[in-house]
Amino acid sequence: MNTEDNKLPEDTQLSSLYKQAEQEMPATHIDDAILAAAKHETEKYSLPYNPFSNNWRISASLAAVLVLSVGIVTLMEDEFILDGVAPLAIEEDELFQPPANLAKEKIALKKTPIKARAKPSLRQPAAKRPPITTADTSDVETGQGLLSFRGQDRKRNEQLARKKKQESQRTAAKTTDRISLAAAMPLSAPPAITTGTDEQARLPYWQYKDEGLSIRLIQRLPDQTRGYFVARGFSTEHAELIAQSCVFQTVFKNISDKGKPSEIIYNMENWIVTHQGKAGEMKTREKWATQWQQSNATILAKLAFISSLLPTMQDYQPGDNNKGMSTFDLAPASSFSLKLTWQQYGIQRSVTIPDMQCAADTHADPETP
Predict the structure, then answer these.
(1) Do 133 and 247 belong together in one domain?
(2) Pairing state of beta strands 335-344 and 264-267?
(3) Closest to 138 measured CA to CA, from 170, 106, 93, 177
């Protein structure tokens, strides 16, 4: 059966209309006009984009973003300064450890909302900043919780700063105490000042001795001094000048090698001679040399004199010792005290030997055989 024969007249007419519609197309000149207009619009908006063109809204938007960025940075910096107090440096493990009572503070804030203080202003002093009250309870709780957290940070920073300061003070105090203790620490052998008669010279002596040092000063009679220097080329006048200057034979020893070895350094110019309430100095090699320049003493006599005196400055290693004459520039039979100073065990030490006596100018009679 043919299908076309079974179609109704209305179907045939509708099919004819559909076939006609499929063949209908816009006119060619219309297509050309549309394409030309589209190309013109495309070329117009394909030019380089200029944000500062006649469209003022774009420029205004950029300026607003810039101002807002500066304000946010300023507020972020301001968050680290609360009430004008900048946080101190803290340890890294403490920085990331929240306060133990932060949860309790949040619970208390939810029960009793309070007013939050305003953040510090760069233009307004901290003392004049007014508090700001917010109507939203949740905002108040959040802001107050943040302030509480910052307050805990500030307290922790202040505690750390105080702790470091206290440790520094304790360290300085310990150092001072060690120095003071070293200066005042008694030696294993208590220091002693003794006096008596020297076994060899048969004359009085004064001695100071501790575990590190021993110094003995023995009287010399003026007659002994005269004979000694006349025999070495001095004139009678020059020998008499020395004999009248209160001469002692001095024996200096560093005996620290028997206990705690330590070097000794002394300077005789720092020793103090006190006579009749007046402090004076010893007459050292240098003072004698100045006096000899004004006399006609021979060079050999001067060399002999210098080698006979105890050196003005000297350092003694453990076990070292030396002896020589010491002159005090006092008249025979004068009483005086002598303050000795020296360096040992890393500190300056001193001792005063009281009630010393210059030998009297007496002439001993020859012994009867």
Answers:
(1) no
(2) antiparallel
(3) 106
Domain range holding 290?
A: 192-357
* Tokens of residue 328, six digits: 């005090």
Number of structural domains (the chain) is 2
Distance in Å from the first CA to the final CA of the chain: 189
Q: Which residues of 198-214 are buried (b: 16+ CB within 10 A; e: fewer)?
A: beeeeebbbbbbbbbbe
CATH number at residue 208: 2.60.40
The type of residue at 277 is G
Q: What average pLDDT score do residues 64-83 get? A: 67
Give the alpha-carbon dihedral of 61, 63, 68, 71, to 10 degrees.
-170
Higher pLDDT, 52 or 245: 245
Please tell me whether residues 123 and 258 are part of one structural domain. Answer: no
Note if the pTM is more than 0.70: no
In a domain, 43, yes or no: no
Sign of CA pseudo-dihedral 331, 333, 337, 339: positive
What would the mean pLDDT of 84-113 be, rounded to a whole number? 49
77 and 115 share one domain: yes
CB atoms within 10 A of CB 39: 10
